[in-house]
Amino acid sequence: MKKALSLGIVRGLIWQIVGTIAGMALVGIIQIIGGKGWSLEPAYVVGSVIGALAFLAGVGAFTDWFHLAQGKEVPEPEEMAYPDGWTRYLGVSYDHKVIGLQYGAVAIIQLFVGGLFALFMRTELAQSGLQVLTFIQFNTLIGMHGMVLIACILLGSAAVANYLIPLLIGARDMAFPRLNAFAFWLTIPATILLLSSLFLGGFETGWTAYPPLSVRGPMGIQGFFIGVFLVGWSSVLGALNFIATIVKFRTPGMTPFRMPIFAWAVLATSLIALTATQLIGLSFQMVLFERLLKMPFFDPTRGGNPILFQHLFWFYSHPAVYIFVLPGLGLISELLPVFVRKPLFGYKWIAMSSLGIAIVGFLVWAHHMFTSGMESYLRVPFMYSTLLVAVPTGIKFFSWVATIWQGRIRYDTPMLFLLGAIFVFLLGGLTGPPLGTVSTDLHVHDTYFIVGHFHDTMFGGFIFPIFAAIYYWYPKVTGRKMNETLGKIHFAVMTPAFLLMTLGQMRVGLLGMRRRIADYDPAMGFDFTQLLITIGGFLVGAAVLLMVYNMIVSLRKGSPAEGNVWESRSPEWQISSPPPAHNYDAPVIVVGEPYDYGLPGTRYIAFGDTHPAPTSVQSATPGGD
Amino acid sequence: MSEPVQPVSLPPSAPQKNSNVKHLVIVGILVLVSTFLLNYLLQASGLLPVEASAEATIIDKLFDTHFAIIAFLFSLITVFLVYSLVVFRSKPGQSEEGMYFTGSSKLEVVWTLIPLISVIILAYLGAQSLTQTLRVDTQALVVKVTGFQWAWAFEYPDYGVTSQSLNLPVNKQVLLKMTSRDVIHSFWVPEFRVKQDVLPGENFVKELRFTPTKIGDYQVLCAELCGGAHAYMNAPVVVMTEEKFNEWITKEASAVIQDPAQRGAKWSANNGCLGCHSIDGKESVGPTWKALFEADIEQIDGSKVKATSTYLRNAILKPRQQMRKGYSNLIMPDTYGTLLTPEQIDDIIAYIQSLK
Fold first, then answer.
1. Does the beta-carbon distance from B184 to A300 stay under 8 Å?
2. CB–CB of B102 and A595 under 8 A?
3. In angstroms, how far is the first alpha carbon of chain A from the final one?
4. Cα A470 vs. chain centroid, distance in angstroms?
5. More confident: A578 or B271
6. pLDDT per residue over B112-140, tens digit each?
7. Contact at 8 Å (CB) between A20 and A48?
8. Contact between A239 and A197 (Cβ < 8 Å)
9. What is the mean pLDDT of the segment spanning B61-71?
C-alpha cells in the first residue's frame, strides 16, 4: 500500500476521486440550500473540474510551484538526479525523455481505445440493418472515436517532439521542464473525463458537438467537453514550451536554417496550437454554459445563433488538422534523407512551407460550412483560400520526390512507412480539392467521401510517419532494435488493408453514403463494399497490435543497437542508446549542414570541450539563400 | 536566389547528367500514359450517382475536371516515386551514397508558381460552377420544407397541400424554403447533388433551388447528424411529368380537407381572391363575400339578380360579363377558369355560402 502510494499516478487518481466527490457534494449542498433540489449535471461538471485539479495536486505537478511561492528552495531540473527503473514513468519527472515516453504510453492506450471504438462501429456497419449497437451507442462511439484519437494524435506528436526536440537541437532539456510535466499530467484526468461520458449516457453529436443537438442530448457531452478542454490546455502549454525551447535552446552554431527540419515542423505546429486551441475550448465552454446556466448563445428562439458555434469551432478545428499532420510531415522530411542517402531537397522551402501551411490554415475554416447556411457570399473567398493550401503542400511533395530522385534507397522498415506515408497523404491531398470547390462540396459534404479523405490525411500525416518514427527511434530509446521481419509484415498488412478501407469509404460516399449513420438502406447496394471496409479496418487493427507486440518483445529480445544504427548525421545518434540523463555530456557544436548525405568528409555536429566551432563551416550550400 | 541544381559530383558527374535526362524522359512518358489510363478509369467506373437535376450536370462537369487533375497529379508523384524506388534502390552489399544535390530554387519557384496559378484557375472554375447552380427562376415552384427528429414534411403553399413525400414536376425549378423544429438537419438528394443545412429558428429559413430533370423515385436523406434515428431520417422524392404533378396536387388539395367550405377558404387565400374580396363586410376593390350568397345583387340597369351558385360560378369564370352596380368588371382577372379546377370553384362557392 505504502509502495503504491509512492507512485504519483496512484496518489493522483485517489485525489481525483476525492476531489470529484467533494466538488459534487459542495454543489449538492448549495443546490439544497438554494432550494433548487439535487441536479446531477452541474454537480458533475464542477466536481470533475475540481477532481482534475486535485489529480494534478495529488500527482505532485504543483509541488515545486507551491514551494517557490512559499519562497522555498526547489531543485534545478538540470541538476536533478533521476531514478532508474520503470517506476519513474508513473510519477512526475521533469526529464523530457521520460515525459516523451509518458506521452507515448498514454497515446498508445488512446490509440487502442479509439481503434476499438472504430471496430465496434465497423462491425455494426459491415451489413445493413441494426445488429450490434443501438442508435445512441453508435452515435456516442463516433464522437468518442473521433475525439479519443484526436487526443491520441496530439499526445503522440507531443511524445515524439518531447523526446526528440531537445536531442535534435542539442539541448539538455525543454525550456520549462515543470510546465512540461504539468502539461503531460493534465492529459490523464482529461482522458478519464473524456471516457467518463460513456457512462453518463453518452452523447449524440459526434466530435463536432453542434448545438442545438449538443444542448439537448444526454449529459455525457459534459464529460466530453471538460476532457477536451483539459487536453486543449495541455496542448497550449506544450506548444508554448516547444516554441521557447526551439527559439532559445538551440546549441551554438545551429542557425534557424541549420535546425533539423522536424524542429521547423514542431515550431509551425506549436504556433497554431498556441493561438487556435482556445477557440475550441471557448465554443465547448459556451455550450456547457448554455446547458448549465441557460445562456442562449446558440438558441435561435432566444436570439442565439447556431452558426456562430460552427465558426468558433472550426476556427480551431480546421487549423487543428495541420496540428495533426505537420509533425508527421516533418518526420517524413527528417527521415527521408537518411534512407535515400541524399540531402533533403530544398530545405528552406520545406521549412517555409510548414509555416505557409500554418498561416493559410487559419484562413480556411469556413470550408467546413459551405452547406451550413452561413452568409452565402462567404463561400467563394473561402474556396480560394482553401485551394491555396495546395501550394505549400505541393512544395513538400515535389521536394520529397526530388529528394528520393537519384538517391541510393535503403528499404528498412522505417523507410517503408515513410513511403506509405507519402502515398497515403497524397491520396488524402488529392481528394481535398473536390471538397474545396463549393459546388462539388455540396455533394460530398457529410458523406463517407470525406471520411475516406480525412482518414487518408490522418494516416498519411500522422499514423504512418509516427510508425516510421517508432521503428526508427526505438533503438535510440531502448538500446534494442525492433524485429525487422515483423515490422515489414506490419507494413505489408496495414497498407493494403488501409487503402481498401479508405478507397471503399470514398466510393460509397460519392454514391450517396452519409457519414454518421448507424444503418443504411440495403437498396443502395453498399453492403459488399461496407463489408470490405470492415475487413480492412480489422486488418489495420491487427497490424497495429503486431507492432505493439513487436515493441514489447523487442524490449528484451531485440538485437542490441550499437552506435549509429541508421548511419544518421543527426546529433542524437552520435551518443549512446539510450541517451544519458541530461543528453549530451559535452557541448554540441554545429559544424555543417544537417542533411549533407553524399558529401564525404562532412559532419553535422561535433562535440566540443569548450573549443569553438571549427571554421570549415561553410560547406557547399547551393540550395537558395 | 542562388545557383540551380549543382550536382556537386563525387562519383563522375557527366554520365549522371546524361542519365538524368534519360530517366526524366522515361518517367515523363510513363506519367502521361498513367494519367490517361487513370483518368479513363475514374470516368468509366461510375463514381457518381445518376444525374437527376440541372445542377447535377453542372456539378459533375466540375467533378470531371477534378478527376482529371487527380489522375495527373497522382500519376506525376507516384510514377516518379515508384520509378525512383526501383531504379535508385540500393543494391545488396552497396553502401554507396546518393547523388549530392541540395535543392534548386528555380525548380522550387516553378512548382510554387504553377500550382498557385492552377489553384486560382480551379477556384475560378469553382466559382463559375457555383454561380450556375444558383440560377434563379422567378416562376419556381415553392415548397416549404420542415425537418424534425426524425422526419420531413413538405408544404406546397400555393396549393395548400402538405405532404410526407416531396413530389416535383420534371424540368421546373423548385425553391425550397427550409426550417427545422428542433436541431440542425440537412437536405440532400444524392441524385440532385445539392445539399443545404436546415436550421431551427424563424430567422434562419434557408433556401435551396434546383431543377429536377429526370423522372424517377429518389430519397431525401438527412445529411447532418441529428441524434437518435438520424440514419432513418429519409423521405421519398418523386419526380413526375407536369401533368401527373398537377393531377396529384389537385387530388391532394381536395383530399386534404373534408369540408368543402374550408377547402374553399384555402383556395381563395392561396389564389389571391381575398386581396380584393373581404369576408367581413368591409368595402374593398371587389364586393365583399360576407352574406353574399343568395343575396339580391343590384345590376347596372337597376334590376336585381339572386347570387345563386350558378351566378357565383359565372362571376368567377367570366368576370367581364358581370354587370354589378358600383364595381368595374375589368379588374378581376379572367383566368380563374384555367387556374382553378371546377371542384375548387365549387369549394370556393361553398366557402362564400358559409360566410353568413
1. no
2. yes
3. 62
4. 14
5. A578
6. 999 999 999 999 999 999 999 999 999 99
7. yes
8. no
9. 94
Q: Which of residues 509-538 of A touch B (CB under 8 A)?
A: 510-512, 514-521
Dihedrals phi, psi of B220, to nearest 5 degrees: -80, 130
Task: Test B224 with A136 for CB contact under 8 angstroms.
Answer: no
Of the candidates B229, B60, B103, the residue with the CA atom closest to the CA atom of residue A204: B229
Residue B245 C-beta-side C-alpha neighbours within 13 Å: 21
Please state the φ and ψ torsions of residue B142, each to the nearest 5 degrees.
-90, 130
d(CA B308, CA B353): 9
Residue B270 has pLDDT above 70, yes or no: no
Contacts of A622 in chain B (CB under 8 A): 2-3, 5-6, 8, 101-103
> Does the CA dihedral A605-A610-A616-A621 come out positive or negative?
positive
Residue B167 has pLDDT above 90, yes or no: yes
**Chain A contact set for B94 (CB, 8 A):** 408
Residue by residue, DSSP assigns B324-343 as BTTS-SSSS-S-HHHHS-HH
Signed CA dihedral, B224, B230, B231, B233: sign only:
negative
Q: Which residues of chain A lie closer than 8 angstroms to B122, CB-CB?
A: 387, 433, 437
- The contacts of residue A167 (CB under 8 Å, 6+ apart) are A97, A571, A572, A579, A583
- ipTM attached to this prediction: 0.90
Residue with more model confidence, B280 or A51: A51
Q: Is the pLDDT of residue A243 over 90?
A: yes
pLDDT of A612 over the 50 cut: no
Three-state SS string over A254-281 comes to: CCHHHCCHHHHHHHHHHHHHHHHHHHHH
Measured CA to CA, the distance from residue B297 to residue B301 in angstroms comes to 11
pLDDT at A615 over 50: no
What is the distance in angstroms between the Cα of A280 and the nearest Cα belonging to chain B?
19
Secondary structure letter of residue A129 according to DSSP = S
* pTM of the predicted model as reported, rounded to 2 decimal places: 0.85
* Residue A444, phi then psi, degrees to nearest 5: -90, -10
Nearest to A101, CA basis, from A473, A417, A558, A560: A473
Burial class (CB in 10 A: 0-12, 13-18, 19+), B217: exposed
Residue appearing with cell numbers 516518379? B80
Task: Tell me the nearest-neighbour CA distance from B197 into chain A, angstroms.
Answer: 5
A217 contacts A169 by C-beta, under 8 angstroms: no
Which residue, A272, A78, A249, A77, is CA-closest to A165? Answer: A249
**pLDDT tens, A71-119?**
988 888 777 777 777 888 888 889 999 999 999 999 999 999 999 999 9
C-alpha cell at B342: 371546377
Residue found under cell 535526362: B21
Do the beta carbons of residue A446 and residue B224 sit within 8 Å? yes
Of all residues in chain B, what percent carry a pLDDT higher than 90? Answer: 47
Q: What angle do CA A36, A40, A41 make, to 5 degrees?
A: 100
Q: Dump the DSSP string for A339-387.
A: HHTSPPTTHHHHHHHHHHHHHHGGG-GGGGGTTTTS-GGGHHHHHHHHH
A344 touches chain B (CB under 8 A): yes
Give the three-class secondary structure for B246. helix
* Contact by Cβ (8 Å): A503, A452: yes
The predicted pLDDT at position B269 comes to 65
Structure confidence at residue A511 (pLDDT): 95
- Using 50, 70 and 90 to split pLDDT, how confident is the model at A218? confident
CB-based contact B126 A401, cutoff 8 Å: no
Residue A625: pLDDT band (50, 70, 90) is very low
For residue B228, what pLDDT is reported? 83
| Mean per-residue pLDDT of chain B | 86
Nearest residue, CB atoms, A300 vs list B16, B122, B200 = B200
